[in-house]
Specification:
Elements (H helix, E strand, L loop, with lengths): L16 E5 L5 H15 L6 H13 L4 E8 L4 E12 L2 E13 L8 H15 L5 E3 L9 H10 L15
Parallel strand pairs: 4-5
Antiparallel strand pairs: 1-2, 2-3, 3-4
Helix pairs in contact: 1-2
């Protein structure tokens, strides 16, 4: 998917946008996109400085995960994908979990989400990761059916539900 004119980790660009691996200089843009994603999901984001620090943590430790950006020709972030890489006894080797996948509303329907997934799959394979998981939004999310259909069309299969407990 890459060639000499496409940065490593990038997917071949469309005329209007491209996907690339984020760099530390992109941490603020990732924090902003995360705020937009959480607002859309009805969640409350952490402070922007905390989101920026979290993004930098991932960007400075590629073994922990990856951040991929979709950007327009003028460099505006129009989508992003955040993934973590983990190990578990139940899964031989390392696996990835999609933590965030978001495309700006006005840019949806242009295959940006699919290209972000393709870039993640390529990167994961290069790192010896052969399994990617994703947790879906809660049942109250209006776009749950479309989100589930998107992941199913991208080759994901249903494996159960995810729960959480906050420690504090």
């Amino acid at each position: 998917m890459s060639d000499a004119s496409t940065p490593q980790g990038a997917v071949a660009p469309s005329p209007a946008w491209r996907v690339r691996l984020a760099a530390p200089v992109d941490a603020q843009a990732v924090a902003g996109a995360t705020c937009e994603l959480l607002a859309e999901l009805g969640g409350k984001p952490a402070e922007p400085s905390q989101l920026r620090a979290a993004a930098l943590g991932i960007l400075e430790d590629p073994d922990s995960g990856a951040l991929l950006l979709a950007e327009s020709q003028d460099g505006t972030v129009v989508g992003y994908l955040g993934a973590s890489f983990s190990s578990a006894v139940r899964i031989p080797g390392r696996y990835g979990t999609i933590e965030e996948l978001w495309v700006k509303r006005d840019w949806r329907g242009q295959a940006i989400g699919g290209r972000l997934l393709e870039a993640l799959f390529e990167l994961a394979r290069a790192r010896g990761i052969s399994r990617i998981e994703v947790g879906l939004p809660g049942e109250s999310f209006a776009g749950l059916k479309a989100t589930s259909a998107f992941y199913a069309a991208s080759g994901f299969t249903q494996v159960g539900m995810r729960m959480r407990r906050l420690l504090g």
